[in-house]
Design brief:
This protein is an alpha+beta fold and 53 residues long. The protein has one domain. Helix content is 13%, strand content 21%. It is globular. The chain starts with 13 loop residues before the first strand and ends in a 9-residue tail after the last strand. The protein binds zinc ion. The site of zinc ion has 8 residues, from helix 1.
């Protein structure tokens, strides 16, 4: 499964729960930046092949 962000082809490793948008699965890099926003919760996807945090 690929990252849900436009134009990103890295593997999704983290699910983000975004109060201002839809919940989605993203790569570690995108999860790091999304998690800076207030209210956003990031949680690792079980079995994903990448490291978080
Ligand atoms: Zn990404």
């Amino acid at each position: 499964m690929a990252c849900a962000e436009d134009g990103c082809t890295r593997p999704a490793a983290v699910r983000v729960f975004d109060p201002r948008g839809s919940d989605r699965d993203v790569c570690v890099s995108h999860a790091r930046s999304l998690a800076q926003r207030e209210g956003v919760v990031a949680s690792p996807i079980e079995g994903a092949d990448a490291e978080w945090p």
